Amino acid sequence: MEILQSGLQLNTNQNNSRKRLHEQPLQNENHKVIRKIDNQIELGSCKNKEKEKEKEKEKEKAEKGSKIKRKTKVKKNKNKGEEVIIVQETKKKPKKEALAKKKKKQKKDCKKEKEIEIEMETETETETETEKREGEVKKQEIANNEIDKTIVGIKSIIIENAEQNNLKSISLLIPKKKLVVVTGVSGSGKSSLVYETLYSESQRQLVESFSSFARKRLPKYTKPKVDRIDHLSPSILISQRKLKGNARSTVGTITELSSYLRLLFSRCGLPHIGDSSLFSFNAPEGMCQTCHGIGIEYNIDLNLLLDYDLSLNESAIKHPNWHEGKWYFKNLKASKLFPMDKPLRKWNKKTMNKLLYLPKTKFKVDEKASLVTRVSFEGIVNVLNSYRFGADRSSYTVEKTNKYYKKSKCSECSGSRISREARAVKWRCKFLQDVMDMELGELLNFIVNIEDLHIVEKPILLKVKETLSYLCNLGVGYLSLSQPTGTLSGGESQRIKFAKQLTCSLVDMMYILDEPTVGLHPHDIGRLLAQLKNLRDKGNSVIVVEHEREVMEIADYIIDIGPGAGQNGGNLCFMGTIKELKSNPKDSITAEYLLKENKPIKPKRRAISKKFFRIKKANLHNLQNVSVKIPKKCLVGVTGVAGSGKSTLIMDVFCKQQKKAIIIDQCGVWKNSRSNPLTYTQTFGEIRKLFAKKTGQSASLFSFNSTGSCEECKGLGKIKMEMHFLDDVSVPCKKCNGKRYKSQVLKYKMNGKSISDVLSMTVNEGFDFFKKYSKIKTNLRTLKKVGLGYLQLGQPLSTLSGGESQRIKIASRLEKSGDLYILDEPSTGLHMADIEKLIKILNTLVNNGNSVIVIEHNLDIIKYCDWVIDLGPGGGKNGGEVLFEGRPEDLICCEKSLTGKYLKPLIQID
User: Fold this and answer.
1) Which one of 70, 276, 330, 783 has the fewest beta carbons within 10 angstroms of its own beta carbon?
2) CATH number for the domain including 271?
3) Domain boundary among 368, 386, 409
4) Does residue 235 form part of some domain?
């Protein structure tokens, strides 16, 4: 803040009374800040204009004073009563005395003229000196203005009157080349400011600099609702979005380390077999011909496909394409090759092989005089394989047939994906697959300890070592290069993308990160913070949307949006340093929580039940013969550093045993413009049925996706207009005025409200409106409990923030009937104030007789748990061990546990 304020102060040699730009805190004058900057930049030029005007007035006075006075007479016009000024010039004949007087007068006038000339020369010299001084002052002011423009322009991003979504005309300065944290409660407007305003405008301006031909092939960015954004840099967004789970995409391909290792093996490996493409599982010449470079074989599980106790006429083939009435079933029956009424269990082996593996064969049936009907039949396994692996396969057919397949490692390449020739090449006694299967930390140590590097190896290994160092420092050293990207969490995906940017040498970029601490244990956060500082120190602007206290403490600047969520948010509560935030907590919920000292607490814990869930000898990934017991009807926390095996133990092992468990995982909410809180919580169907019952109409009439939708906008309420090379523009539908429905549908009302009026209500208003209808009321009550009472019932899910999406997902599952709830990092995207609400919800579930298991890193949740299972001590091969099972008070005494070390200051011990 001190750097920013000193930069904004205008330097001047003449006027010492010019005030600092910020006499009051910036958050209280957010609209005036930008205006002051503009006014002070132009201040010098305005003062110069005033001085020039004063000069002109003085000259005019001097000219008036130097004029010769003439004798005037004032005469009145008798007819009109007006006064007329008449100048009289009288000429008299000269006389001797008069001539003498005239000569004397002329002498006096000559003397006066000489004196005037001398005075004028003196005045001219004085004016010249004054003009010089004024010129110097003017130059100085221009120089000062240029300095001010440089300070304000280059060192700050200026945002004026941002009104995107719920933002309420906020204006602010964001210092450049600093680490800036944007915080606030979930739904306060952080995403609207950072992603939809700042990032979107940066990308839009960048794309506009390209030719129209190039723009046609690039994403279109809509201009955000903001009057002005100045001095933007090119931006890169590092989001929490999971990396796409392509079967061929791995950690090695996404970080491009696979390319360097292929090059290394092709140049330095023995025996030498040729170019680097021969080591690529994505190239035809380098991939395994059995699994086609995927490393996995998909084989049909006949027990999943066939019911041996049924006949073909009884739908013994479970795939719907072979059910009665379908085309494949008709051909199967017409071929007359199989007994249709005989259970499959009684078939002989030869007939069964025909059903499964017979090549495509044509048969003549119903042969008559001049008419021959031909049908073809092909074995079921062959047909399904064509669905799954054929050239004309679609995502729909693949998804439809996947459930009949089982996965196993390729029998030819054992999962290495590459050809036999590539598998035989060694470099420093290591096969390529050995290197790819190493953990990143292990691989880094292996490369660092190599001595006497060959001249060809040096540049390749230098780049590999640099990238591996960044990945390990970001806390993902337990991963391997061969790990598929589809198995990574959102936090792991984000850190891999972040590491890729750290190797970039570009400067003066604007990096935007979405909660980079998600999925990180407190032990790992310190290394992440070091990398954020490193990115800033390279000369970049780093803007982080974050709730974590540790990140705020090291930030150069903090922007707090709030004070509440939805319509209660969108205001600029504070901007400045962490010290200023703590000293000025007014209107900032964040400041209130930062000021609360982390005093140790002694929460009341429930008695541990004698009934337990048990996991015995779990062996998966890094788990080795792990056995644990989980008490029922308690709040159980599963902790440990990233990669210690928490998700493997609970999500992959335990969940498969508990088929009825209600699982809230890290998968995002499916967002589109037609889904809303009512549709996601399955409440809209109940409301439509209620309207149908009250009005005597069909329930489908009250759906904006069906018969009741507006014919013009198809139920969207707006029409998207394509502008070719410009941004697409969405305008309200003129036919329905944005209400989504046909006019005749809106005539049907319930208690004076149409279906469109209901969609415009907030959750709180809807709860009061439907209080007599228990099922609707129950679902809306749950939304209120998770703090979403401000949302509109018909608000598209595509407009929700990450924290709002997380809470609506929790709300949609809380009211489901069950006795076991499993939540994977539910604190993701939640502010400190929102976490308090989450803890209350979890406690309510347990008090109602349910068992709740939470996989978490957030210590504010762990300290309230009744039972804790801590895994570790490290990640990957160094993890997979149960370090502790028991009460949180006892965990802090476990020397091996890093969780206990960080939990100790938060729990009071008697």
Assistant:
1) 70
2) 1.20.1580.10
3) 409
4) no
The CA distance from 132 to 124, in Å, is 12
Q: Is residue 194 part of a domain?
A: no
Tokens 């008697």 found at: 910
Residue 662, helix vs strand vs coil: strand
Domain coverage including residue 716: 672-796
What would the pLDDT profile of 276-287 be if each residue is shown by its tens digit? 999 999 999 999
Longest dimension (CA), the chain: 162
In a domain, 552, yes or no: no
Q: Are 870 and 523 in contact (CB under 8 A)?
A: no
Enter the DSSP assignment of 104: H
* β 83-87/72-76 pair status: antiparallel
The 3-class SS string of 275-290 reads CHHHHCCCCCCCECCC
Task: Report CA dihedral (516, 521, 524, 525) to the nearest 10 degrees.
Answer: 50
Domain count, the chain: 4
Q: Do residues 302 and 386 both lie within one domain?
A: yes
In the chain, the amino acid numbered 624 is Q
- The tokens describing 349, both together, are 């082996």
Q: How many helices (H) and strands (E) does the chain have?
A: 36, 27
Report the distance separating Cα 643 and Cα 622, nearest Å. Answer: 9
The position carrying tokens 């349910």 is 850
What whole-number distance in Å separates Cα of residue 275 and Cα of residue 296?
25
Q: What is the pTM of this model?
A: 0.75
Q: What are the pLDDT digits (tens) for 366-421?
A: 655 444 467 788 899 998 888 877 666 666 677 778 888 888 899 999 999 999 99
Assign 669 to helix, strand or coil.
coil
Give the CA count within 13 Å in the CB-facing half-sphere of 864.
18
Asked if 839 and 700 sit in the same domain, the reply is: no
315 and 383 assigned to the same domain = yes
How many C-beta atoms lie closer than 10 Å to residue 617's C-beta? Answer: 9
